[in-house]
Structure formats: structure tokens, C-alpha cells
Structure to design on (361 residues):
């Protein structure tokens, strides 16, 4: 199968003209994100509220052209009104104008809400969220997982869940459930086929519904799989939800770590404690000889954790079985319980419980 790269998608998007500006979206700097994984392409198109209607055509065109590329199974483009979060040593994060009530968005009967975040897409954040949630459940906790990833919710598939949540009373939803873990997804909350600009207030109302109108209780821990990056939507979630703490997932490549630092800073600035950093796709174990190969310079996440004074929770290798099991809806923590990878996730989960104990004694 042809493997599509971000550069190739960029080349194709350079053909998308914004009619009233007589130039293409790339030249105009309107594409703020391209994520390519497994033949799926996610594109983020910048707009402002005033230009939303005009930009909807542009969004569709991006989706169409990227979707027609050989090797692309599906392409989605979303409109966002992005606001980059400055680094800690630059200007402070612009605080959102949230009421006291909004800032305390929490779910009834849920003791601890933990965000799992990454500086950019494709680092394995969702895979890690799911395996960690299942590991926490195997350690005896009552666990839920909430898929807040606006770019393409993947948690239900990884959890082996399909269909729609039901409601018995017409106002609250019963979360879906598998492997003893409750699950809800952003994908259930938004109507399809409608132009969606993921601006702060809209993210907030989808979040609010998922937290308040879902029968989560009783839960010890709710894992929230955040959208990748550090834009407006992420900031709103970080700031508006009563999070006990955040976990940052990163790959060892330096560039990803730079992004990971942005993620760290975002939570720091809104005073959410960092529970720790997980390095994913850290090393590769040769299936034939068992040799460990550090394809990327590993150890970067550990160094970053030390530098920032937060806990290094552990590393997960790059392994085909981790991918195939979660793609098949049978994550490795529940399907191969005695594998070294399942044990790695279990160790991380135990550390998370420890860390939460320290944050919330
Ligand atoms: P993100 O949520 O950061 O966008 P995903 O969790 O969707 O990333 O992972 C992206 C791809 O990488 C998926 O196909 C997933 O199966 C794969 N993947 C994630 N972690 C690993 C790993 N440790 N080893 C092998 N493949 C992985």
C-alpha cells in the first residue's frame, strides 16, 4: 500500500484556493495541522467565526482532495479557531473567561479525573490511554475512559465497542462498557455532516454533556483522552475541568519532546499537576533475536521529566502486537496479560495510583 506523507498532503492542499483571497490554503498559512496515520489523514484548517461559512467550502475541498490521494483511506478536515499557548517563559496563558461553576466541571460520583495528553498527534496517546485504563481496572479500580479527541475518536474501536449509548430517562446517557471499563466518546456527541468549528465554548459544552449527563458513577478514576496539541480546545479542557492531574505521552524523537514540553507548560500554567510522562515507542525488541534496538535516541522523556521535576512513569516499546491488539479492539493489557508489554502498562498504572495518592492524599 502506498504510504502517504505529510509533505505529500501539503502539496495536494496547495491546490485548494480560498476564493476571496485568490491564494491557496498553504500559502495563506491556514493549515495548522496535518496528521497522517494508517492511511487516515486529519487536517486542521484555521478560521475565524466570521469567515466560517466561506471556509466550510474550503474545508470540504481539503477533505475531498486529500481523500482522493492514492493510499488514503479516509480524510477529515476540521475548522478551528486556534490559539497557541505560549511557552512558560514567554507570556502567560490567556486565562479564559470562565465562571466559577464552569471551571469546576466535574462528573458526579467520580473521584479522580486524569487527562492524557500529547503535544502532537500520532504518538500513541489513545493506545496508551486505553491500556492504562484497562490496567487500572485490573488493579481493582472502577475506571471509565472518555474520548475527547476531536480529530477522530478512536477509543470505542480500541475498546471493542460499537453502537450508540442508550438513555433510559431521556436525559442521561448510560456509558458503553467493555472489559469492565465504562466508555464515552466525543464521536457520540456531535451530529455528523455539520460544519464544526471546535472553539472553546463548543468543546466546553460537549465536555459538559459527557461529564454531567452520563451515568459514570461510581468511578474511582476517569481517564480523559485529550485531543493532541495545545490549542484553544485543549486549553479550555485543561482549564475548565476539575482535573486531578495530567499524564503526557511522548515519543523519543526530539521534535515530539519539544511538543511535549508545550503540553507540560500548558497544564502547569493552568495549575493542573503533572502526574508524569510516559515514553511510547521507546525502543524496538527484535522478534527474532530479542535484541532491544533504540531506533530513536531514547531517554529523552526521562530527561525532560527530570528537568521539569515530574515523575517519569515508564517506557513502552514499539511493538506490532501493541498495535494489532488495540486495532482489533482487544488491547494487550486484557488480551495478553502475561506479556512483557502488558506488565509494562501494569507497572505504569501502579505508579499512577501512587502519584494520585500523593496529589490527593
Ligand atoms: P494518538 O492518539 O497519539 O494519535 P494512537 O494511539 O491512535 O495515537 O496511535 C497511532 C498509531 O500508532 C496506531 O496505529 C497505534 O496502534 C500505533 N501505536 C501506538 N503505540 C504503539 C506502540 N507502542 N507500538 C506499536 N504501535 C503503536
Amino acid at each position: 500500500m502506498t504510504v502517504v506523507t505529510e509533505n505529500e498532503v501539503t502539496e495536494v492542499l496547495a491546490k485548494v484556493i480560498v476564493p476571496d483571497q485568490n491564494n491557496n490554503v498553504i500559502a495563506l498559512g491556514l493549515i495548522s495541522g496535518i496528521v497522517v496515520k494508517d492511511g487516515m489523514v486529519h487536517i486542521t484548517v484555521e478560521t475565524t467565526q466570521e469567515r466560517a461559512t466561506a471556509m466550510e467550502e474550503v474545508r470540504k475541498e481539503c477533505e475531498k482532495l486529500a481523500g482522493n490521494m492514492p493510499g488514503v483511506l479516509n480524510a477529515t478536515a476540521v475548522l478551528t479557531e486556534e490559539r497557541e499557548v505560549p511557552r512558560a517563559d514567554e507570556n502567560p496563558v490567556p486565562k479564559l473567561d470562565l465562571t466559577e461553576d464552569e471551571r469546576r466541571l466535574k462528573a458526579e460520583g467520580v473521584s479522580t479525573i486524569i487527562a492524557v495528553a500529547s503535544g502532537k498527534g500520532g504518538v500513541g496517546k489513545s493506545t496508551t490511554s486505553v491500556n492504562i485504563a484497562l490496567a487500572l481496572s485490573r488493579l481493582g479500580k472502577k475506571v471509565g475512559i472518555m474520548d475527547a479527541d476531536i480529530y477522530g475518536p478512536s477509543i470505542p474501536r480500541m475498546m471493542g465497542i460499537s453502537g450508540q449509548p442508550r438513555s433510559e430517562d431521556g436525559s442521561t446517557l448510560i456509558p458503553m462498557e467493555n472489559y469492565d471499563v465504562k466508555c464515552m466518546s466525543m464521536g457520540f456527541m456531535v451530529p455528523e455532516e455539520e460544519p464544526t468549528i471546535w472553539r472553546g465554548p463548543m468543546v466546553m459544552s460537549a465536555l459538559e454533556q459527557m461529564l454531567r449527563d452520563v451515568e459514570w458513577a461510581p468511578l474511582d478514576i476517569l481517564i480523559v483522552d485529550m485531543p493532541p496539541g495545545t490549542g484553544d480546545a485543549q486549553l479550555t479542557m485543561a482549564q475548565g475541568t476539575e482535573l486531578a492531574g495530567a499524564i503526557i505521552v511522548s515519543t523519543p524523537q526530539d521534535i515530539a519532546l519539544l511538543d511535549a514540553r508545550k503540553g507540560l507548560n500548558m497544564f502547569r500554567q493552568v495549575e493542573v499537576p503533572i502526574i508524569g510522562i510516559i515514553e511510547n515507542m521507546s525502543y524496538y525488541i527484535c522478534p527474532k533475536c530479542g535484541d532491544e534496538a533504540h531506533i530513536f535516541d531514547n531517554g529523552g522523556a526521562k530527561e525532560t521529566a527530570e528537568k521539569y521535576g515530574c515523575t517519569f512513569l515508564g517506557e513502552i516499546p514499539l511493538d506490532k502486537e501493541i498495535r494489532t491488539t488495540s486495532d482489533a479492539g482487544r488491547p494487550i493489557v486484557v488480551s495478553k496479560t502475561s506479556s512483557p508489554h502488558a506488565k509494562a502498562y501494569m507497572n505504569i498504572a501502579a505508579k499512577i495510583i501512587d502519584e494520585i495518592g500523593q496529589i490527593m492524599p
In short: Confidence is low (pLDDT under 50) at residues 83-95.
